[in-house]
Design goal:
alpha+beta; globular; two-stranded antiparallel ribbon; 18% helix; 10 strands; Glucose Permease (Domain IIA)
C-alpha cells in the first residue's frame, strides 16, 4: 500500500513537471517567463520596451504607453480563458507611467468606471466605413483610486481626443483590493454592435486581433514567443 502511494505521488509529480517543462518550451510559456523576468528586473530589459507614440511600419495606431507587451490577444491564463487584448507592463510604480490615445476618436467613461475609458473610432482605418472602439483599463490603484486625468471624469461622453492625448496612468486595479493585478495597461480593439454601441469586451469574440492596428505580432496563436517589437519602425 505504501509503495503504491509513493508510486502515485511520483507519477503525479512527473506529470506536473512534464507539463511545466512543455509549457516553458511553448510560445505562451516563453511569454510568461519574459513577464516574470521583466518584473524581477525591469531595468535590465529596457530593450524589451516600446515608447509611447511609437508607430511600427505603416500601422495606423501609435503605441499607447511605455512598456513591454507581455500577454497577447487570445493568450490563456487558465482553462477556458481567452485574453481579449494585450497587456503592456511598465515596470514602474502605480500612477507613474502615462497612457495616451492610440488614435483619433471620441472618448467615453461610464459613471461607474474607476480605471477604464473607451474610445469610439467612427471610421476603422483598416476597414473604412466600419466603426470600432478602443478600450483602455487598469488606470487606478488597487483600492480603486483613479489615475484617469481630470479631463475625463466619470460620465464623460463623446469627448474628442486626438492620437497622443494623455488619458491617465498605469495602475493595478482588478476590482478586488486584496488581489491587485501587476501594474500595466490592458488595451483592446472592440467591435461595434451595428447600432453604434460597443460590445462586451470581456468576450474575445467581441474584439479584433490588434496586430495590424499596431504593426506588431500580437496574436498568441501565431506569435513566436519573443517579446513583440517593431520590425519596421516608421521613418
Amino acid at each position: 500500500m505504501v509503495k503504491r502511494l509513493v508510486f502515485i505521488i511520483l507519477l503525479i509529480g512527473a506529470v506536473v513537471a512534464g507539463v511545466l517543462i512543455y509549457r516553458s518550451m511553448t510560445p505562451r510559456g516563453a511569454r510568461s517567463n519574459h513577464v516574470w523576468d521583466f518584473f524581477a528586473n525591469p531595468d535590465s530589459h529596457a530593450d524589451w520596451k516600446l515608447t509611447p507614440g511609437t508607430r511600427c511600419g505603416g500601422a495606423p495606431f501609435v503605441f499607447p504607453t511605455d512598456g513591454m507587451v507581455g500577454f497577447l490577444w487570445d493568450d490563456s491564463f487558465r482553462v477556458g480563458h481567452r485574453h481579449q487584448g494585450i497587456d503592456i507592463f511598465s515596470g514602474t510604480e502605480v500612477g507613474v507611467t502615462p497612457v495616451f490615445a492610440a488614435y483619433d476618436g471620441y472618448l467615453t467613461r461610464l459613471p461607474d468606471w474607476k480605471s477604464s475609458v473607451i474610445q469610439r473610432v467612427p471610421d476603422d482605418p483598416l476597414q473604412p466605413g466600419r466603426q470600432i472602439w478602443l478600450y483602455y483599463t487598469h488606470m487606478a490603484d488597487q483600492n480603486g483610486n483613479s489615475y484617469i486625468v481630470a479631463d475625463f471624469p466619470p460620465g464623460a461622453k463623446e469627448v474628442f481626443v486626438a492620437a497622443g492625448t494623455l488619458l491617465g496612468y498605469q495602475g493595478n486595479y482588478s476590482g478586488d483590493p486584496n488581489s491587485p493585478t501587476g501594474i500595466h495597461l490592458h488595451f483592446s480593439v472592440v467591435r461595434d454592435d451595428g447600432n453604434g454601441n460597443f460590445l462586451n469586451e470581456l468576450d474575445i469574440r467581441n474584439t479584433y486581433d490588434p496586430s495590424p492596428y499596431l504593426g506588431l505580432s500580437l496574436n498568441a496563436n501565431t506569435a513566436d514567443g519573443e517579446v513583440p517589437l517593431c520590425q519596421t519602425p516608421a521613418p
